[in-house]
Amino acid sequence: xxxxxxxxxxxxxxxxxxxxxxxxxxxxxxxxxxxxxxxxxxxxxxxxxxxxxxxxxxxxxxxxxxxxxxxxxxxxxxxxxxxxxxxxxxxxxxxxxxxxxxxxxxxxxxxxxxxxxxxxxxxxxxxxxxxxxxxxxxxxxxxxxxxxxxxxxxxxxxxxxxxxxxxxxxxxxxxxxxxxxxxxxxxxxxxxxxxxxxxxxxxxxxxxxxxxxxxxxxxxxxxxxxxxxxxxxxxxxxxxxxxxxxxxxxxxxxxxxxxxxxxxxxxxxxxxxxxxxxxxxxxxxxxxxxxxxxxxxxxxxxxxxxxxxxxxxxxxxxxxxxxxxxxxxxxxxxxxxxxxxxxxxxxxxxxxxxxxxxxxxxxxxxxxxxxxxxxxxxxxxxxxxxxxxxxxxxxxxxxxxxxxxxxxxxxxxxxxxxxxxxxxxxxxxxxxxxxxxxxxxxxxxxxxxxxxxxxxxxxxxxxxxxxxxxxxxx
Length: 474
What we know:
The chain is α+β, with helices and mostly antiparallel strands. The protein folds into three domains: about 40-230, no CATH class; about 235-335, no CATH class; about 370-474, Immunoglobulins (Immunoglobulin-like). It is about 40% helix and about 20% strand. Strands 10, 11, 12, 14 and 16 form a five-stranded antiparallel sheet that branches. It has a four-stranded antiparallel sheet with strand order 15-13-17-18, with no helix packed on it. It has a three-stranded antiparallel sheet with strand order 5-6-7, with no helix packed on it.
């Protein structure tokens, strides 16, 4: 018996003898070739758009405060004019449902658009790859540098690259924490090195994750860690727009000179240059069919179109199309007609209904919360004129970004009146406890306990009003 490693199994070779084969493929670093074209321009534009928002939004002020801030310590979430409280967790749940349905819809229509253009892993991998090219050159120079012995040039290029990566990763971690700690306060703490333990942990943790995922793991995150790559197939169907290789037009592959009669040799339009593989960030060959590792970045489309231009062939050998169109079941001109199908209609209907409900309820949102607590020491007592008096404590939360004076009234019993505590002024985002005294004539109390309600209404805006129920004891 031969000694085997823990990840090796015996297999039969061609000669019938036993050979050893590893269960795991050895990872080889991918050096994607730079590409230009319409789809790459879209990727760069979305990279700039998303990163300007991500890095710039924490520094934007709104009403003398940070425009977007998730203040966990104060349990308030600021979103421009809106301020959300933990009691309004339903809004976050609704946003998650909307995001999931939108992802299902976009995937059913046009594949992995999110992965190819807006996913943070894709965006930061593209950003780190560009920094790598600035220091180490194009993909061929990177390979040569990797194989070269260590010397001053290699140390300077590799060291400069990692310094730039670490600076970018740390700034990303700082920005991330700036959404939870006021960014100006956080900046001051960094300058005087007076960070709290949790702020320090999350800045360095997020920076390390960015540096590791975008700098080293890259396509491995998409292949092995992202669950979306595994379950995307259940959202695809033969009418989903995906990046496809037109095998009917491209096969058989083979090199040829420009202008040569390749049809006479039985060749298709594919010149077998392999550039589509060289530009792929996950290193797959799209000519082998749709694979779960494809992130839909369309780099292969830009690369192939450039080769087709040079050869004088029509573009679109690799293109966005559907499986049914590639198989010849209908022409490309009818692809749009097949977008509206039962699956996409159901997704669209559900998404539209939830979006309408979300924005309607958001527009009707009342930034006021009231809780009524009875005074346990004095449940009920008789006062002058034979009236019965009950004491209550109202906890009123002004959830608005502006201060308001609230008028307190009561109803439910004929002649019920507020004897004290009929108004209160509460600052923006403030909470106040108010002691309210209610009085009612004994003749109106026909039961030991009768339901009453409080109405709290802002003097300057009648829309901001709440009612809270309680009981009145005889």
